[in-house]
Amino acid sequence: MRALLPGLVCCALLVAPAAAAGPRRCGDDVGGRAVPCDCGDDSITALAGNDANTCTADSCDPVFGCINEPVADGSACDDANPCTTRDACTDGFCAGGPPPDCDDGNVCTDDACDASTGCTHTPVVCPNDGNACNGAETCTPPVGCHHGTLVTCPAGQVCAPPHGQLRAQAVQRGCELQRR
User: Fold this and answer.
1) Is 0.90 surpassed by the pTM of this model?
2) Residue 93 included in any domain
């Protein structure tokens, strides 16, 4: 399918007679000679024939003006989305391919893809198990989330049972007097 833009000046003039009053279309008669065209990418860009689409081949026709012909399906392109790979032209448009493999192999990061920045690796927040006796939960590769350092109690005291009712004082310190 051709995208024709008749009347749009898109080709650079190779012949610019002094009598010419501005740009002319390719093939226009100037003093008995047809104006030749330079339909290279630079001339098309400069004169608005380039549609800036890598999935079309831009050219200028002396009769029809600018032509933006789709390139072969499957031709490589870039859809400007870092969350797609192996982008390819389809029917004159760039279609994003499959997502990238953002897995960094670290169990302590949540791996994702952000359309503006690409792969992200956000540190995992380990859930609190509610046990004041086993310290704050942390993540360490390759183990993953685990409890922190066990609470060390002063002599004569023990850490309250992990799932028992703790007194306000025990909650703050995690230790209470040992009863015999």
Assistant:
1) no
2) yes
